[in-house]
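Deliverable D4.2, example record:
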Amino acid sequence: MERIRLTPRLRAAADFVRPGDRVADVGTDHGYLPVWLRQRNVSPRVIASDIRPGPLASARASASRWEVEGIDFRLCPGLADVGCEEADTVVIAGMSGETMIGILADCGWNWTGKRLILQPMTKRPELLTWLYAHGFSLREERLVAEGKKFYWVLCVEAGQAPQPRLAHLWAGFTETAYAAQLRTRLEKALAGLQSAAEPDEAEIRKTKEILEDMRDAYGWTDL
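Output generated by the structure prediction step:
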């Protein structure tokens, strides 16, 4: 049987799964990640959950197509029908950081010894700020490219740590091509804000602070 292949961002998420961990894949969509984990015996059991019947049916079809067992399908929002004792690692990929915060805030889990693997599509700074404020810290991050877009995959575990600086929240803990791309976007946004008929001073100040902290964090000398 041919093995399933993952997109770069899903493969990065899969690489963060500890061998032997039971996994809950929230918002599983087509169920590709659970199939990949079971095909390679990375996880003894995977829960594939989704809020919509259509994607969950697609996930079931994927498991059938690749003749994979050991996947439990759950129709539910977030982790609503997944017990804390059922999973060692939770993967949430392809959602906004805001949605992820809602899922984590609502579940009431004890995260000691567990792992979160998060791939936010938007709101990375807000997500990381929330995580650090609620007893989590970033263990590792990976930047992956798909076409012209960059995606962050975050490996998070319970553990108090100091709040990261602005540059790290927005652009990563090490300088990457994404940081340069973000700098260009922020500079354009700042120019637009400053030329507006009624400039938003709070937003101008915030954008300047991010750019200045990126300059300091990454050693840029041309800002």
